[in-house]
Amino acid sequence: MEGECLALKDLTSPRKHFTVEPEEDGGQSEQKENMYTERRRSTPLKSAESAVPALLINRKGATPDLAHITPIKHTALTEPWTPTANLKMLISAASPDIRDREMKKVLFRPIENDKDKPAIPDTVVDDAEVDDSCQFEAVDGEDDAEKKPSRKQKSLGLLCQKFLALYPDYPPLHSPIWISLDEVANSLGVERRRIYDIVNVLESLTIVGRIAKNSYTWYGRQRLEATLEELQRKGRQQGYHLQMELATEAGPGREDDGGEGDAGNAGCNRKDKSLRIMSQKFVMLFLVSKTQTVTLDAAAKILIEESQDSSSHSKYKTKVRRLYDIANVLTSLGLIKKVHVREERGRKPAFKWLGPVEFSNSGNAGNTLNVAAITPPDPSARPVTCQDLRKAKMARHASFNITPTSVAIQRQVSSAPSSPRRELTGLPNHPVDYSRKAMSSSTVCQLQFGNRTENHPSAPLQSNISHSSSSNSSSLPPASSHPTLLAPHLHPEPLFTSSPSPHCLAYLPSLSQPSVVMLFRTPDKPDQIPEGQRSPRSDSVDGRKRKRDESEEAEMVKKQEISGLEDRDKMRAGPQREASECSQTVDTRTPPSRPAGLSREQVFSENSSSEHAQPSHYLYVPNNAGLNSLNFLLSAGQPPASLTLPPSSVPALALPYVLVPSAALPHYPLVTSSLQQQGSDAHTKLSFSLPAMMSPAHFMVGAAPYSVAAASDLSRSPVPSPSTPEQSRLYGSAAGTPRSPSGPRQSVSINTSEPLTPHTPKEPTVSSSKAFFQTPGTLGSVVSAAPAARKRGSAQRRLDIGHPPAI
DNA sequence: ACGTCCCGCCATGTG
DNA sequence: CACATGGCGGGACGT
């Protein structure tokens, strides 16, 4: 026993955390509870404690128990519990160094980062506050553990640290580490209930994957980056960034909006509310946030359907509670830290993201990248689900709730590590890099990025939305936004899968800051795009597209189901890979000025050509100009669109792309439409009335400094609209503006008018659009399989992947 | 007094 | 039905 325990301990704590942490912490911390920092320290302590056989033993019983318990899991590896030893081994094998470094990084980073953060427009984060502290007491050391652990000592954050300490951040790929919840609970001396809380959050980040009933596989941080990237993508698709803005700024009240119709979403199953999902959503908020700081309040509101109504007040409280649980775990992971944001009203508790934001993943060369890489890589990726946001918003009307959709969340079960992931981001080496921040500030410009594309059918599938919702638009406030479509995928599926987004973004780094080029690709229909772009020829046809889409969807659906049933991993892998192409397109460097656009465009298109994925439209934002000046390049191909377009457009046919001044856009009304496709989905989108545009998928804006731009993407909707070509949606969101209070962005409307573009050097803000979003989840449901609905239960997920719970 | 959030009841799911 | 999960919120702890 002891040995065992010890082993664990050893493994865990010692090396990594300790060393590093202490140092840092000391400096800063003040008090907060669980910071990762603390963790570091605490860990040791804890570990000690826990380590101490006594503790464990106590709880659970004799050592034997432990033995019993444990055995199971590790077996896989080789030995049973002794495994601890194994673990150690693994760990060490894993390259402790790396881990350590990482840890260090992490640890340190935060601090640095914090400082960086510039002020934010609206909210300011107090740096000062930030501290991490370790307070926990780390202090006490060892012994006391037994003593009476204070409440803090029993905190989820600490517990999580202990948990994390048991396993290597980067376990060897081949040898999976099995985790038995019972064992862990025993070893950590806590009730299983608590372990569930931790594991659910970890699962949401693909740090662990569920295998079966009481067993999980430990993935460590290997997949983390990919997962985060995926979450970011999804978050953007969902329009969370918009929401964030709204929420942030606006007070309570209005944020909403949203939703619309889909309605569907509602399904709130247990699962929907699960910690896991909530965790993903919460993380998404950080990833799409310009400031990377999310207040609890905002998060709660966004995550709740209704924000704060009175009625919902209790909900709000509950949500906040859960967010604390999640935050504690994330803090332990070193992904966030607690800060306070000053707002008009006063200060609010908030959390700042310390993890990577930009995944540059891809960074690779520029562009390209592999999106594919991204997605495919891990199977495990988490399913995400997000959805809800919109719901939340929508919530306002009760009506929305009505439909539930199912979600299909299935969880994937385990995913095997199967595919080799790509490195997307360089994971391999260093784990996470938190560097991004730096980047943002300094580097800036290049964001490269990737894009992904995917065309893959899968996406479509997901997309489906409930029909019902579709109608929505009317229901909503006009403005609304709803919609985006988002991909339905969201939820249920694993991120990856869905993820592949349809669109590509192109970011042109080269441009100097100010200028940005956004490429929109139509997600859905890849086919079209390519064509259009390449040659002036028109493109095609909507009809065709649609069909395609539809068909694809159908396929997708099937796939999903299947996959669900089987393995998600597979799914992911497959589909995703395709995506990659888009990314290529961009070059990093493109010429700066706007004009360049054309050339680039082509470039892009070509690259992308590979599949369909090419961007169909480009949004070019000149440096100086703000959104105002945005020009849209539409591919000539677009069908109808051209017509509408203003002058420039006209030529469209002839030209591959049409540049549309932003100014012109206004003329075109934005429309939200929901489309339905075949039965299944309806999407709503925002678009200009112009036909032409496509739906863009994402665009990125690069701007300068600070980080990242926000991107928004849109979703994709595959569907062509029935009648119109509305393909385009816009969104706008751009990044950057610092807005302060400013604004009101209109929701839907695009930013065009707004200033967004410019990212100011300051911070990027997101743009305005808020809009839409929809619930992802709902959509996801696409599948609709009805059957599942009730399943929601936890268990099910694993097992059932396939089902959709729809409600 | 208030922000956090532990604790564990008990609903939901599963086998 | 027993067991596994995990939503949920009362109310305690910390400050």
Automatic annotation (TrEMBL):
GO terms for cellular component: RNA polymerase II transcription regulator complex. Pfam families: WHD_E2F_TDP. Residues 1-48, 250-270, 409-438, 451-494, 522-615, 713-807 are annotated as: Disordered. Its main location: nucleus. Residues 409-418, 581-591, 602-613, 739-755, 765-778 have a biased composition (Polar residues). It is found in: Nucleus. One of its GO terms (biological process) is lymphangiogenesis. GO terms for molecular function: DNA-binding transcription factor activity, RNA polymerase II-specific; RNA polymerase II cis-regulatory region sequence-specific DNA binding. Residues 30-41, 522-543, 555-572 have a biased composition (Basic and acidic residues). Residues 460-488 have a biased composition (Low complexity). Keywords: Activator, Cell cycle, DNA-binding, Nucleus, Repressor, Transcription, Transcription regulation. InterPro entries: E2F (IPR015633), E2F_WHTH_DNA-bd_dom (IPR003316), WH-like_DNA-bd_sf (IPR036388), WH_DNA-bd_sf (IPR036390). Residues 151-220, 270-355 form the E2F/DP family winged-helix DNA-binding domain. PANTHER family: TRANSCRIPTION FACTOR E2F, TRANSCRIPTION FACTOR E2F7. Belongs to the E2F/DP family. Atypical E2F transcription factor that participates in various processes such as angiogenesis and polyploidization of specialized cells. Mainly acts as a transcription repressor that binds DNA independently of DP proteins and specifically recognizes the E2 recognition site 5'-TTTC[CG]CGC-3'. Directly represses transcription of classical E2F transcription factors such as e2f1. Acts as a regulator of S-phase by recognizing and binding the E2-related site 5'-TTCCCGCC-3' and mediating repression of G1/S-regulated genes. This is Transcription factor E2F7. It comes from Stegastes partitus.
